[in-house]
Amino acid sequence: MALTSHQEQQLQILLEKQAIQELIHAYCNAADRRDQDKMRSLYHPDAIDDHGGFFQGLAMEFIDRLPDIQAPMEILHHNVTTVNIKLDGDYAEGEVYVLAFHKVKTDGEPFDLLIGGRYFDKYEKRDGVWKFSHRAVVADWVNVHNPSIVDLNSPIVEGSRLGKAGTDDPSYEFFSLLRRGQR
Length: 183
What we know:
Blueprint: H1 5-33, H2 36-41, E1 43-50, E2 56-58, H3 59-70, E3 73-88, E4 91-104, E5 111-126, E6 129-145, H4 171-174
Parallel strand pairs: 1-6
Antiparallel strand pairs: 1-2, 3-4, 4-5, 5-6
Organism: Ketobacter alkanivorans
Pfam family, one: SnoaL_4
Protein name: SnoaL-like domain-containing protein
């Protein structure tokens, strides 16, 4: 059975949106694993990133500063929920809801920061690949626990793999296809 032209068009839209969804998820993984090579591959060279008080400017400069921005973060955990994407040829826009958990070390006790927010994204498909051309972060609500309530020494997780920032994360030993630095 051959597809109608309408079905082919709908299938193409679905494929384009899936590619953008994979880009969005790759961003979360790159941020949480502190994989700057992977993060760089997600943005066009002239892309803009607006992370409010942390940074506003060229995304590549933001990525250069990420090690310092992320240094006090003992845990980063980005979770994407609702994703709304609209396509117009090789340009698209997305409003992406995110829950971003941070355990932040300080000179005293660490504290937890849970942000409910959204990414306002602009994407462009260049040379057949969707990447961010502009990302702006919006905070809708914030929940702070000071001191932190995270307890990775609890007996309930004893013997479990524990996530870590960078190359010490157990995912790098476990996976052969999901590699560091790759989309």
